[in-house]
Prior knowledge:
By secondary structure, chain B is mostly helical. Chain B has 13 helices and two strands, in the order αββαααααααααααα.
Amino acid sequence: MLAVGVRESLLLVVAVLYIAPIAYTVTSSLKPNGEIFTQPPSLVGSEVRWANYADVFAYAPFLRYILNGFLISLGATIVVLATSALAAYAFGILRWRGRDATLLGYLATMMIPQEVLVIPMFLLLQRFGWINTWQALILPWAFGAFGTFLLRQFFMSLPYQLVEASRRDGCSNWGTFTRVILPLARPSLAVLGVWTFITHWNSFLWPLIAVNDIEGLGNVSLGLQTFFGEHGAAWNLVLAASVISIAPTMLIVILLQRHLVKGIATVGLAGR
Amino acid sequence: MPRSAVKTARGGPVINRPRARSEARSALGFLTPSATGLTLFVVFPTLLAIVTSFFIWPTFGEISPAGFANYTDLFRAGNTFPAALVNTIVFTAVTIPANLVLSLGMAFWIATSRFKQFYRVLFFLPVVTPSVATSIIWKMLYQPGGLLDYVASMVGLKMPNLLANQSTALLAVTVVILWNGLGYNTLIFSAAIDQLPDEVLDAAKIDGAGFWSTLLRVKLPLITPAVFFATTVTMIQAFQIFNQPYVMTAGGPGTATMTVVMDIYHKAFQFGELGAASAPAMILFGLILIVTLVQWLSQKFWVNYE
Amino acid sequence: MSLDWGFWNQGTDGNKMWADLAAKVSTVDPNITVTVTAPPFADYFTKLQSQLASNSAPCIVSMQSLRLPAFAQAMEPLDDLMAKQGFKADEWNPAALKALKRDGKQYAIPYGISTMAMFYNKDLFMKAGVAEPQPGWTVAQFQDAARTITAKTGKPAFGQSFSDLHMFSFLLAYNGARPVSDDGTLQLTNPKMIDAFTWYSGLSTKEKVALTPASSSDVPWGEQQFVAGNAAMAVDGTWNLSSDAKDAKFNVGVVTIPVASGGVSSYSANSGFGISKSCKNKEAAAKAIAVLTGADAQKQVAANGTLPARIGADAAFYEGLAKNYDAKNPGYSAQAKAVVDQSSKTATPFIPTQRWDQTTKAIAREFILAYTGNQPADTTLQRVQSAS
């Protein structure tokens, strides 16, 4: 009994310490700009400046950035889920010659760092006339092999009998895909979806290059940089804006937590 | 489920010819959207980047062939690449075990608690915080006169300036990166532990296995697929670190926190030398490929798929 | 026709002012509409590079004097184009024009001009019982003041920095050492520079009167610590005369950078507007630039807190300072004017090398080792020289 109590309290202490830097972010975000770097450091400034949060929206069209980021992340998530699920079916359920070799080739592409691709990508999109468009932000990074890899692991852990039964019933591959595999795949789709959403939400380098109209298309990461001016930064606004940007992704994680946990477990990661 | 009763699609002999042909045709259809996108947006730009590495390709100006010059220049005196490569490799070698041990430990610890859901989300919080923000905050913590220094002074110690010292800077940044990313693997492992079949755990208890014995010899082996996945992903990410050292120390002091991706970024976007930037990118690509291949092949030795 | 104009984010008030000026172009010539894109400053030049790489650079390009050598080859010389718009060189501050010239050709028309000065904390000076410095003061006087203030207040008096302008201005004032030779090559290892830099880093290692940056990513360290009240003195540009007074919670004073024998008072730097080579409507762009830098526009710029580059437009600047700060901080605007006048007399534009970005990156990484005493000054300079 005592042992449990001690273990739980210790865990709580560790968790609180772990989160302390974030708490510090929140308290610092309520200080006036000049006081963020004062020494010795203070928890609260000369005033609790809730106005910082309002100022974030006044200084820059931050609400628009949040909306843009949301639309882009959502669009990318849909593309990723659709194409990856289809490809995962080909790699995980269907059997064909050269399947494993092709898969390896697919996976090799996961290891290419983004920084290498950015300039060739830009030149390419320019050819299409796609600079400063929604498709330029949603499509280029939505075809990575990661999603295919993740979903394939999951599809492979499903009992093959289900597929055979479906075929015996006269279902085409498409039918098997949509009526048997996909419904079972919900948790793993949740995992992939959340991961894709967060990655696009936080992306910075590419939006910077591909976007000319920041107000129209810029996401939150791009927006955070607006507070770094030519002559010093509005640190209080940067911190407040950062706190604001945590909220949407955190909300999604909390809401989808149960699906996430189930999905992770069933993506062939738990050795059932 | 006993192993023999379940057939999975892990391969096995392709049974009858007409079926095989129609499956291959189907596969083509299913693969087309993904493969088209991959070719257009990944393969083609990569090829272009490879070509670029053999040219002097300034952002604006004359393009001229360079042979292997971009590669040999990397090892000339004054170039930041060798230090960047060493740092990246050292960082990866240190972070992977540290990350795995810590996140596995946290996951098992959380599993014993009544408030699992709460802790999972809590530890995940740093993962969804913009890395610009976390880097700034940790910088403020590390600063002389900052919060950590202040706390240390309360017990009579003085905190050295970790970020300004060549021997401690990389370590200090590593701590931040670990802090930032642990929650992700913790969530994965925690979920995997949740799914452990009760029968197996009960059987272990009946056999008289204690807490630690169960953990190391029953639970851990069962979640090796999750460990494999987490190791692969974490390793690929570790080779590509950039945000935190860039914001916290800009690659310094000296070249103590320079990483390969930072080197690429400098060369491509700040010095405008695309050819010179593509060379280190190719080297990084090759390195990641080899390491992941080795890892992939080693699967059969330690990962238990059912 | 529609012209693209790239300009880094100027903050809410600044953005509005420049947007209004852009609209004004259409009233002068209804055929022209100027659309401004304002990326964050931190990324403006990165973005410009990739725009130039793919031939999608805006027509009107905003350019800093410090970056001109790297970008000049992508910009169109303006001499003929602007002459057609009635441009007269003698209406402008000569240093402002010179900084945006290269190989004798004018590549951008300036909208502001700044010199470097020493900012000090009047309250801390009073607390330590040190008399406020006067324009033209010497390095010896500076060191005395710094020692006294450090002793009396317990905090190092001077904030060191990695910012190129800030730090090299102080070295220039110390013994005239210049990092870049007249023909545009980097010369960090010449004896004068080694002397000056040894002295500068000695302020923290030997004299212990300086506050060292916490890490090599803290480029504008001294200036920021000054505003936060942690350092009594720091070098900063006159572009911050207004914002420093606004942000600081103490009375700000300003004086020239202290000089020693052979030293020259200050570098100048500024920004302006040019035309990219790929622009398809260069004449229209020139017309737009003429409006953006016209006499009225310059007065507005001055009232908004930036020292204008046109001669005679700066009265509005000092009036603004007086109105906003003289009540709490008597004599500030007069002090500011005295410092600007004096430093402008001997100011020379800071003209960097073509690979200046490499140098500044290396400076941030290496100089911290010198400031903390972990690496000797001459080795540090050598390493930066070879990394550039």
